[in-house]
Design a protein that fits this description.
Elements: E1 18-23, H1 32-46, E2 50-55, E3 66-69, H2 87-104, E4 109-113, H3 114-128, E5 132-136, H4 140-146, H5 155-168, E6 173-176, H6 179-185, E7 194-196, H7 211-220, E8 228-233, H8 242-255, E9 259-264, H9 269-277, E10 284-288, H10 292-300, E11 304-307, H11 317-324, E12 329-332, H12 335-341, E13 345-348, H13 353-364, H14 367-384, H15 387-407
Length: 408
């Protein structure tokens, strides 16, 4: 039984809804999951909602985003993606902080990110009576497997799969960031409890640059003005296909002396060393961690967007940013990328690193095709892929859940 009944913000005039977001991660840390959280927060705020994000002690405060943090955990400063034993201590603290906020300011909706957030959200729902929305960005078991944390074929892996299914089933609505992920969820959850809310992009921030602006940004990174520049912006990890692409770039770069590739992200040191071992140090650039605010101009200063991500179910947020900046996109051919790009993508067979590199080389040779795809991609980003569209979908979900609460 709930301790309290939710106070419906829709019955008051000062905001549409009061949203309590649970983010068991060091928000904000300049990577994909955090960009989705921030995009949703800002769009919901613009729609009149009051949003509070409960998160870990570290991470960067974002102006205009109300953030509640747990007490500092000595020694836990990891910002990159992936599991950490410190989460066993951080998550109970996050539950305590979230409950404190929820009981002080009862939310209309609990909006939980990641599986740990959905688990904590069940306790907060029991305490407040507010409906729970789980923002699903991919399989927990897949993530742990990709990071080498467990083998899904062994008992621990099967245990985590069972735990993941139990968490998924505990939310009132599960919001998937791709249609492929939603289809997978519907194999074990009722269809009406699974909704798709694609990622988005702010096209007033991510946009093409003028010629002089582009040259100035390139100069900061040591990129010549006449270079055809392919760019990857995101976490640097094996599951993102960075290793696969790096091992395949040599022949294409040798055949295209005017082509250069920049990988913006972290952790970069091992990849920088590997590029040097492959003899690519002068053609492949690793500037390291780039603040999210700077990724807008860096992306727009490139000619081609690259996304060799190997997950077939997770969303692919960087594609939205590439499109908004007017870049053609080279991607592996899978349902998630097809859902975003449609006929605008330049595709390689899934997992074919050599084919991916060759597609990059072909696009580098065809300026007219690059310009056509870039123009059409920018238009699609403006008309179909905004965060405002995502917020409209979320508010519709909230309205349905609160209507059900009233009827009950």
């Amino acid at each position: 039984m709930s301790w309290k009944q939710p106070v419906l913000r829709s019955d008051r005039e000062d905001a549409v809804y009061r949203i309590l977001m649970i983010a068991p991660t060091p928000f904000f840390a300049d990577r994909g999951c955090h960009v989705r959280i921030l995009g949703e927060v800002r769009a919901l705020q613009a729609a009149g909602c009051e949003v509070t994000v409960c998160t870990y002690h570290h991470g960067r405060d974002v102006e205009g985003v109300r953030t509640e943090r747990i007490p500092s955990l000595p020694g836990y400063r990891k910002l990159s993606a992936g599991p950490s034993n410190a989460k066993y201590f951080a998550d109970p603290l996050l539950l305590a902080r979230t409950l404190g906020v929820a009981l002080r300011e009862p939310p209309d909706i609990i909006h939980a990110h990641l599986h740990e957030g959905a688990l904590l959200g069940r306790f907060v729902r029991a305490a407040t009576g507010a409906p729970l929305v789980f923002d699903y960005q991919g399989s927990l078991t897949d993530e742990l497997s990709e990071h080498g944390y467990l083998d899904r074929t062994r008992p621990a892996g099967r245990l985590f799969e069972g735990l993941e299914g139990w968490i998924d089933g505990g939310a009132d609505v599960v919001v998937a960031s791709s249609g492929r992920a939603a289809d997978a969820l519907r194999t074990r959850l009722s269809h009406e409890r699974v909704r798709t809310v694609l990622d988005g992009v702010d096209t007033t921030e991510f946009k093409p640059l003028s010629g002089d602006e582009k040259l100035a940004v390139r100069a900061r990174y040591g990129i010549a003005s006449e270079t055809v520049l392919g760019v990857y912006v995101g976490v640097l990890a094996d599951y993102q296909g960075i290793d696969l692409l790096l091992e395949s770039l040599g022949p294409v770069l040798a055949d295209h002396p005017g082509l250069q590739v920049l990988f913006a992200g972290y952790p970069e040191e091992a990849y920088r060393r590997r590029a040097s071992e492959l003899g690519l140090a002068d053609r492949v650039v690793f500037p390291g961690k780039v603040p999210f605010e700077d990724t807008r101009t860096l992306t727009a200063a490139a000619d081609i967007g690259l996304t060799p991500k190997l997950s077939a179910t997770e969303g692919n947020l960087k594609i939205y940013n590439y499109l908004a900046c007017g870049l053609p996109v080279v991607a592996f051919d899978n349902p998630v990328n097809r859902e975003i790009l449609g006929d605008l993508g330049v595709y390689a067979s899934f997992g074919d690193g050599v084919g991916f590199a060759e597609a990059l080389g072909q696009l580098a040779d065809d300026e007219a095709r690059r310009q056509d795809l870039g123009r059409r991609g920018r238009e699609r980003a403006k008309t179909e892929l905004s965060w405002d569209r995502a917020a409209e979908c979320l508010i519709e979900i909230y309205q349905g859940l609160l209507a059900d609460s009233r009827r009950r």
